[in-house]
Amino acid sequence: xxxxxxxxxxxxxxxxxxxxxxxxxxxxxxxxxxxxxxxxxxxxxxxxxxxxxxxxxxxxxxxxxxxxxxxxxxxxxxxxxxxxxxxxxxxxxxxxxxxxxxxxxxxxxxxxxxxxxxxxxxxxxxxxxxxxxxxxxxxxxxxxxxxxxxxxxxxxxxxxxxxxxx
Amino acid sequence: xxxxxxxxxxxxxxxxxxxxxxxxxxxxxxxxxxxxxxxxxxxxxxxxxxxxxxxxxxxxxxxxxxxxxxxxxxxxxxxxxxxxxxxxxxxxxxxxxxxxxxxxxxxxxxxxxxxxxxxxxxxxxxxxxxxxxxxxxxxxxxxxxxxxxxxxxxxxxxxxxxxxxxxxxxxxxxxx
Lengths: 166, 176
Fold this sequence. Notes:
Strand content of chain A: 25-35%
Strand order of the largest sheet of chain A: 1-2-4-5-6-3
Largest sheet of chain B: 6 strands, antiparallel
Number of strands of chain A: 8
Radius of gyration of chain A: 19 Å
CATH superfamily of chain A: Hotdog Thioesterase
Order of helices and strands of chain B: HEEHEEEEHH
Oligomer: heterodimer
Largest interface: A-B, 58 and 59 residues
Strand content of chain B: 35-45%
């Protein structure tokens, strides 16, 4: 029987390094990205999810994967995306060491990533993410301008805006 | 207006990852509208470099989705509340299908989630909905599957598979 002891994954004797980078490898014309480490949020965040039994929110895992993929692919993380499918197969404790493998392919519809996350007991999540080719910003950071372009309250150039801000 | 005190009676999420501030409207078993105010004080902004690009302050997609998911759990559990994951029945995210992220929210903005229950199969609920921010559509979610399981499942002294049949039903036959 699979088991998650109450103290497992919370305080390992040696902290598991974070899953914070992916290494590329080329396999049969496809790009494969791999990484390993813990995806658990810090102690303060763990306290709220959940009190007395810390679990990594599945969608925080998605965020970590998205951030690492964007870094590897040279994309901005606030760009549009399609999360075609996500399956969460087992709970993850904050200090569990996960292995990530992403198979990335360029298609007409954009960059597709098939991601698998494995934990100590087997697969914990499978994701399919598509990054569309369009790089138009999804929305503007309201009122944000590039440094040095605001003079006496007048935005002269370099406005980061798509007209969707308030 | 249904505020944080009432929300805390229904779901186990707590500060700093209680990501729903207000339930605007609820029709139990059918739909729910909820709001969340995005703040630069949230933990997701901790450690951002002084010279970070403006885009780094977009509210993280995963956090926005987690906020929507908490609204979904609120709807599913409205008439069977359980604020303690160590007892009773707990709600586990089993899967997502067709999530389109087309916009971002920024600190200082208010986002509003709409959640609709598609099917409630007892141990599994399937929901759909959107998130908007000041008139802009940020998220569209075709399906989110939530599995309701005994708390023992999480502690490891319950059934083998925490997500049971529901996890398998999401994306059946479609491997990554």
